[in-house]
């Protein structure tokens, strides 16, 4: 996903998406260890999406605290 798509989500949606991506990453790593993973690039893609999401989530949380 692109960063702009993450920025349009609410904090709750970001938390839900974070859980989904972490679960997906776990499954991909498991498949990789078993030698069943066909698309090795998918692991890096999910890791980058997770990093983008964490960055934007942190920005939103800090932004809300500064506004209070």
Q: Could you explain how this protein is built, in words?
A:
There is one protein chain. This protein is mainly alpha-helical and 68 residues long. The protein has one domain (3-67): Helix Hairpins (Orthogonal Bundle). It has helices at 3-7, 11-34, 41-67. Helix 2 (11-34) runs antiparallel to helix 3. The chain is elongated. The N and C termini lie far apart (30 Å). The model has no long low-confidence stretch (mean pLDDT 93).
Q: Tell the overall outline.
A: elongated
CATH architecture: Orthogonal Bundle
CATH topology: Helix Hairpins
Main β-sheet: number of strands, strand sense, barrel status? none
How big a fraction of the residues is strand?
under 5%
The helix-strand sequence is: HHH
How many strand segments?
A: 0
CATH class (first level) name: Mainly Alpha
Structural class: mainly alpha
Poorly predicted parts: none
Helix content class: over 70%
Number of helices: 3
Mean pLDDT: 93
Question: Cα-atom Rg, whole angstroms?
Answer: 14 Å
**Please, how many domains?**
1
Distance between the termini: 30 Å
List the helices and strands and how they pair.
Elements: H1 3-7, H2 11-34, H3 41-67
Task: Fill in the keyword field for this structure.
68 residues, 3 helices, 0% strand, Helix Hairpins, single chain, mainly alpha
